[in-house]
What does this fold into?
Amino acid sequence: MLNYIYKAKNTDGALLTGQMLADRRQSVITALKQKGYYLLSVEHQGKISALLNSNTPLTSHISVKQKAVFTHQLATLLRAGMKLTTALKTLSKQTENKHLSAVITQLYNDIEQSSSLSEAMSRHPRVFSKVYTAIVEAAEKSGALAETLSVLSSQLKSQASVNARIKSALIYPVFLLVVSALVVGVLMTFVIPKFIELFINANQALPMPTKILIGVTNSLRNFWWIVLMLPAGAVCFIMAALKNVNFKMAFDSALLKVPLFGTLNRKLHLARFARTLGSLLNGGVRILSAVDTTKGTTTNSAFAKEIDNIEQDITKGITLTETMSKQQYFTEITVNMVAVGENTGTLPEMLLEIAEMYDQESESAISSMTTLIGPLMILILGLIIGFVVLAILMPIFETSAMVG
It folds into this structure.
């Protein structure tokens, strides 16, 4: 698909400039003439389909924070009374991210060709999620698009903030892991082999720690490819096994139950569930459709199964509180807060509070774990280096004692 820049005059004689995606120049001319425009020029700019195709990895360059800024700016322009097409055209020129700018341009062109905003956004699923487009669709029907976009931008900013804090908390442990691997690698590759050669040439009886060190070093030097293949093979096996529905269900269930990390994983999934469902209900989406859309946002099949159970119970007339209380992974405090929300008519607000609560708890848990992981990794690295030093010094001391 090609991008064309056009200049034209409308029925009032006003000069218009813009761009449109089309397979050929004649399609642009036809579309503009159907609008009653008098064409001055239509020029081919170049291929930008790679930027607009939602199936390409280039759209991954659009971060949550950038989507939040776009949503906020669009809401601001609409509240100021600007037409949707004019607002999109303005944002496409002001947006620095060229991928997002190209997507906004396509939104503008689609709406100019009589698509709704939600329909246009649904053509870019890697940029605008199902939840995002469902909320926009509900807002279009209710006539509260600007207000809903404002709320949506706040939630996206909150999500981006949580993601940034979690990534920041993980930087130090990852750094320590890399440094530890490099230190051990240098010792095993350059330092220890020289001492091994010295001990062998000395033709003396070696203590057990030294024998263990020599055995480990020789194994790593001779069979290093096995060391690399084992983790890679394990990853490939797990990825292949996850294609089996039963194995994936058991694996995902274990991820929610494993000590320490299982609790954190449940909190992260509950936060996403509550935020998504709360946002959809706040945007005017009916509860059955909202639950069904929410189910599609989770990657854990065991958790998705429970959401499916909730959806089926709601179709039978069972309240959200009652059906959630029967599920394994929905905590008691979540059920109690949902009950309060249903009884007071503030369910969307209560769900968003649940999401905020679990976001804070998850962030705190991750921070605590990373605080513990740092000293633990330093301790492990210290023990490894201490063992290496001991294994090297013991035969040296024994030789010195014999000489003495």
About this structure: The two ends are 85 Å apart (CA to CA). The chain has a mean pLDDT of 83. Residues 1-47 form one domain. The beta strands are 2-9, 15-22, 38-47.
